[in-house]
Fold these 2 entries.
Entry 1:
Amino acid sequence: MSNLLEVTDLSVTYDTSAGPVTAVDHVDLTLQPGEFLGIVGESGCGKSTLLFAIAQLLTAPAGIAGGEVVFRGKNMVAMNARELAPIRWREMSVVMQSAMNALNPVKRLRDQFADTMRAHGVRDKAEIRARSEDVLDLVGIDRAHLASFPHQLSGGMRQRAMIAMALLFTPELVIMDEPTSALDVVAQRSLMLQIKELQDRLGFAVLFVTHDMSLVSHFSDRLMVMYAGQEVEFGPTRQVFDTPAHPYSRGLLDAFPSIKGERRPLEGIPGAPPSLSALPPGCRFEPRCPLAFADCATTEPALYDIAGVGSRCLLADPARIGTETRRAGDHD
Ligand SMILES: Nc1ncnc2c1ncn2[C@@H]1O[C@H](COP(=O)(O)OP(=O)(O)OP(=O)(O)O)[C@@H](O)[C@H]1O
């Protein structure tokens, strides 16, 4: 099957007073039609910047420093605003972290939906009304709420309203940036189930960013783990969960409770990610890595293929497997 989205060698920099900071560093990914791809990592690792770069929504001081975002066969990086306009909402839509920031607080839902449809060429009032009702039905919000202002809805309903808006044109790709993060655990779970159910019914692909790996464990087909601007592991979700190839993925898994799994103490990952303006010379995870050995401090790992999973860890380097020694002083 041909890919719906192909991101190749994508880099994004922020211009800061101390010079450019690379927040997304040579990232590659592919997405097939109807696929659910989870992107996980700690705060500040570049997840949102990557999504914004894919959607061509970056604004200064951020800019694409290199690479391609090919969506339905066309490189969006090379497009101008006029060329991007028909793709947005109709073929690719974005659901932001907080509906309270994304929805206009002084407009009723029906007016916000109508504005979006008019901006994309739909003029017929009856069509706008019918489609607005349809998408509210889809996300399980009573049609009467078309007359509501965002503050009259609960947090979960607001996020659902955002998703309804993203589905106005039944796009092929919905990009979601932590859409459940403002909700309590029960509302999070029910929204995730609804997103999955909508995806199954309508067939769109999803790029879903979260810092909570357990949230996507039952929903995503593949998982990309990011650390300090780079992808450090990429593979089928089950495989990454069952046998994480990168020590950082292992640490992330230990940091969140499993919904169904056995009870065990949560360990977290000691330390903090490096500053993107002062990266260590070798592996970016080396200062926090329980498995680091001498070369990790000096050699930058590539993304090695290990049984169908990409892992940016020297332990996965085929040339080294079995030869590495653990850091002096490390004993079990
Ligand atoms: N306006 C900015 N100016 C300079 N650097 C920025 C700016 N916004 C983000 N960055 C840099 O980009 C990095 C990635 O930020 P980004 O928001 O993409 O991370 P994230 O993984 O989505 O985090 P979160 O989960 O907290 O949203 C940050 O660590 C920071 O160094």
Entry 2:
Amino acid sequence: MKLSIFGAGAWGTALAVALAREHEVTLWARDAALIEALAASRRNTRYLPEAELPANLALTADFAAAAHAGELALVVTPIAGLRATLRRLHEVCGQALPPVLWACKGFEAGSGLLPHEVAAQELPADAVCGALSGPSFAQEVAAGLPSAIALALNHGGEARRLARALHTRCLRIYANQDLVGVEVGGAVKNVMAIAAGVADGLHCGHNARAALLTRGLAEISRLAQALGGQAATLMGLSGLGDLILTCTGNLSRNRRVGMLLAEGRSLDDVLASLGHVAEGVPTARETLARARALGVDMPITAGVCAMLFEQASPQQVLDALLERAPKAEDGSELG
Ligand SMILES: NC(=O)C1=CN([C@@H]2O[C@H](COP(=O)(O)OP(=O)(O)OC[C@H]3O[C@@H](n4cnc5c(N)ncnc54)[C@H](OP(=O)(O)O)[C@@H]3O)[C@@H](O)[C@H]2O)C=CC1
Ligand SMILES: O=C(CO)COP(=O)(O)O
């Protein structure tokens, strides 16, 4: 299959390396100098230095050429770049728009929209499109280590066809019909990973981390259901799976943000030192706004927002969470 990947950060590069083992892949980046460097060294030293780029991987900074090259477009920019990339794809391809998958995780800053809601504003109503999301650190996927991710589409038959076409022994693709659940799981686990990094940075212990993941999953699930997703999805790859990976794996950038905040570093300093996107930061604010509009209680997310945007210290946020009144495990009041 001919695939075009838009975005040559860590994840776009890893997917390109993995998918080029089976497919004809073109990787596009907006930065022509980056593409030149990749072509010269066959390595993305800026975003994924560990991986060698296979000889059959085509590289380009020409958006239209990449758009026309693919029978499937994969948008792997951060969510901040999703809207512009979809708009450009539609402009360039018109009626010939191929199926589009996005791999970004988050709510769009400013609008608070999930990726499929952004797509509904930028692509024609009959576009076949959806999300690729799940527990998948770029370095491990590029190295060919086994991973499993979900593919959720607005068209069930196409989801199954594309899952079959993209599936490999090491990059296992599971079709899913719950686009809302898959997107909410992928977005909000990054907020929880910041919280988990803080808890571990404050040496709260293993019990605390397990409690945080479990109560975090309850928050994510409440929000997903209020937005029309299904609870079962959040027990799957793009819910529990990605939550475990990102909250416990030291390769996570969002978890690293939390750990550095717990050391007393400022958010600006932490983000400047990261060298990569940390989607949980802008998404925390949007998650909380959407939750509040829907009357969904998300105390961990609120704590992360207080720390990121209201100068609350990690210890103050931890204390506030621990001082909450007891509740039933399903979130109801004890009465
Ligand atoms: N890394 C991972 O393991 C995984 C990441 N993801 C998700 O994939 C998305 C991308 O992450 P990742 O590749 O890791 O991020 P990185 O920080 O490694 O790279 C970001 C890339 O996106 C480009 N970019 C940034 N803003 C825009 C924009 N507005 N328009 C077009 N391109 C842009 C950057 O280009 P430039 O250099 O020009 O700024 C760079 O190539 C995120 O939503 C992330 O949550 C999902 C699964 C795994
Ligand atoms: O989404 C990811 C793994 O599934 C990557 O997480 P980070 O963005 O926190 O590194």
